[in-house]
Amino acid sequence: MVQGIIGRKIGMTQLFRDSGEVVVTAIEAGPCFVTQVKTEAKDGYNAVQLGFGETRGLNSPRRGHLKGVGQLGHLREVAAEDVESVEVGQKFDVDIFESGDLVHVTGISKGKGFAGVVKRHHFAGGPKTHGQSDRHRAPGSIGAGTDPGRVWKGTRMAGHMGSARVTARNLRVIDVDLSRHLLLVEGAVPGSNKGLLLINKAR
């Protein structure tokens, strides 16, 4: 049995339960097909490569790799408990999860372009009085003097914000709808609507 599945974010909604409302994210998860089985003996580790989403215009190497499985647009590796029982072409769907399970959801966060330090790192900015005219949202000093005489690697500055791989951890599965390949998880997940997601069981 695989420990994860590929899906696509549909959007956020509300479910009203006896205890009150619950804000959930709807994810279209699966069906996914096994495109490759990796073993300790051959590849040095155990994993299963899954394919998701039909596409067209695959190049020749990708068509050869997916021969007999279909023209799948997205490939991702997931862990598996027993790779010996998994075969190429095998189908996995959203029913690998149950209501109450905890999952890690990985996606690409929304890109926000070039951002300053106040927006990107929540800096306080400079003083608003005493002659300061143009330093309200500036980062201030970024280094020391003679020692070390340089700017430390990793110093928080303005730059490209978002559009990075993000994992939301330990989200609870609220409901599973196999007929519509639908997974409802409590809370928010990374990325925009229709963005690709990788959903793994929390270990």
Query: What value does the Rg take, in angstroms?
Result: 23 Å
**Largest sheet geometry:** 6 strands, antiparallel, barrel
The CATH architecture category of the largest domain equals Beta Barrel
The average pLDDT value, as a whole number, equals 92
Helical residues, percent: under 10%
> Quick one: how many beta strands?
12
> Order of strands across the widest beta sheet?
1-2-11-10-7-12
Q: How would you classify the helix and strand content by structural class?
A: mainly beta
The fraction of residues in strands falls at 35-45%
CATH class membership of the largest domain: Mainly Beta
Can you tell me the CATH topology of the largest domain?
Elongation Factor Tu (Ef-tu), domain 3
Query: What is the overall shape?
Result: extended
| Series of H and E elements | EEEHEHEEEEHEEEE
Could you list the spans in which at least 5 consecutive residues all have pLDDT below 50? none
State the domain count: 2
